[in-house]
Amino acid sequence: MCYSAQIVADYRKYVRMFGAHMSIREFAQLYWERAEGSSFKIPKAMDAAFLVPATDDERRIKEAIDRFNGEQATRLEQELFKQRARLADAERTLQSKTTKAASESKRIATNKIESALRGLDDLRRTEPKDRDSRIFPGTYAPVMVMEDGQRVIKPMRYQCRPAGKPKFCDTKYPGTYNARRDNLEGFWKGVFGYSHGLIVANAFYENVKRHRLEGRELAEGELEENVVLEFRPLPAQDMLVACLWSHWQSPGEPDLLSFAAITDEPPPEVAAAGHDRCIIPIKPENIDAWLNPDPCNLAAQYAILDDRHRPYYEHRLAA
């Protein structure tokens, strides 16, 4: 399962690369709802695309980002003050008597102070880092779809809730950020052949067992150990990752745009690294055919997935 990916989060690159345009209404709604208190997760690199707004709509999005960041900074500063006071109390206690409670309080306060400082540093810095473009299940990302014959960029959550499914699918089926190719006509039958999308990614991350990575069986008494691997195509390049997406609606609930990356059997180098799934990068010449599926001709969509781009994936332990 592709549990995380490093994506192109700046919608302007989609515009330049594919002649797409941004669906400003969905972006503005997303940022307004986050500023109003919704717990949406948006990568910092996606925010960065609006740091120098060029239109009134982009200025309104920038205002929503600034408002959210300001409230986050206040929350972190309050937490910092609280934990520094807690640390001081614990240290005073430990000066006179060593207790388990005071030692634990000192440890927790120290960890929370470090976390708050990291959070403040992340809010304030302007220089980009790779992690700013990394998405996890539940994170929003720009997705290219076809709408009225035009390529359009919409912000969507990375975990698909298909239209018509109950809201509790998110927790009942937590792995729906990926759509297995061998289940496209099963769980995904109302989406595959109807609403296809693409994200642009240049790396993906997988959880694997260390003994599988090392090509061996578990030793007697050895417990399984999980490691995270980063896979990057060689040569370095942007990949057009095949996705399914859906517009979920329900009375009394906010609309949800969400997507899942399609995965398939891995190429040999990914399998050798201990993982059993892989994303599917499609070829540029198949973009429009993929984004304009015919539900009466699913064979044509499978053919696009088969005619995939096949780079060699180099792997390393993720930082």
Automatic annotation (TrEMBL):
Pfam families in the cross-refs: SRAP (PF02586)
Alphabetically ordered keywords of this record: Covalent protein-DNA linkage, DNA damage, DNA-binding, Hydrolase, Lyase, Protease
Gene3D superfamilies found in the cross-reference section: SOS response associated peptidase-like
Molecular function as annotated in GO: lyase activity; peptidase activity; single-stranded DNA binding
Statement: the UniProt record of this protein carries the keyword Coiled coil: no
Species assigned in the record: Paraburkholderia fungorum
Cross-referenced InterPro entries: SRAP, SRAP-like
Protein name as it appears in the record: Abasic site processing protein
Enzyme nomenclature, EC number: 3.4.-.-
Highest taxon above the source species: Bacteria
